[in-house]
Amino acid sequence: MKPTITWIVVADGARARIFVNRGPGKGLELSGRELTAEHPRTSDMVRDSLPRTHESVGHARHAIEPRVDPHQDAKREFTEHLAQVLDQSVAERAFDRFVVVAPPKMLGDFRKAMSKRLQPLLHGEVAKDLTKASSKEVADHLAETIII
C-alpha cells in the first residue's frame, strides 16, 4: 500500500518552508521547496507625498493616510502565491494532504486564497509562527494534528 504523503507548510507573510511526512513513524524531512518574498521598506512601497485635505473650519491641512497597509498587502500577495504553488503541486500529485502552520492572520488569508481543488486536501491547521523553528520543534507542535 502506498504511504500517505503529507506536506507540512510552515509559513509567514514572507517565507514558506515545506516539510514532508511519508507516514506514521517516518518523521519530517525538508522537501527542498522554500518560497521567500522580499518586502521593501514602506518608503519604497508608497508614493512620496500623501494627498492632503483641508479642515472644514480654519486653515489646517491634513495628510490622508492610505487605506491599505502596503506591508499587509505584500503579505496577502505572498499568501496567494503560496496557494497557487500548492495548487500546482496538487496537479502534479506531489502530496495526498497537507497541514498549514502559520500565524492566525495568514491562515485566514490562506483559506480565502485556496482553490476548490486544494480545499479538500487540507488536513489541519496550526495557528503559530514556526518559520524559524527546527523540524523537531515543528513536529512537536503537530502532535495533535498528525502522527509524525
TrEMBL record:
An example of a Pfam family matching this protein is Host_attach
- State the source organism's domain of life: Bacteria
- What's the protein name? Host attachment protein
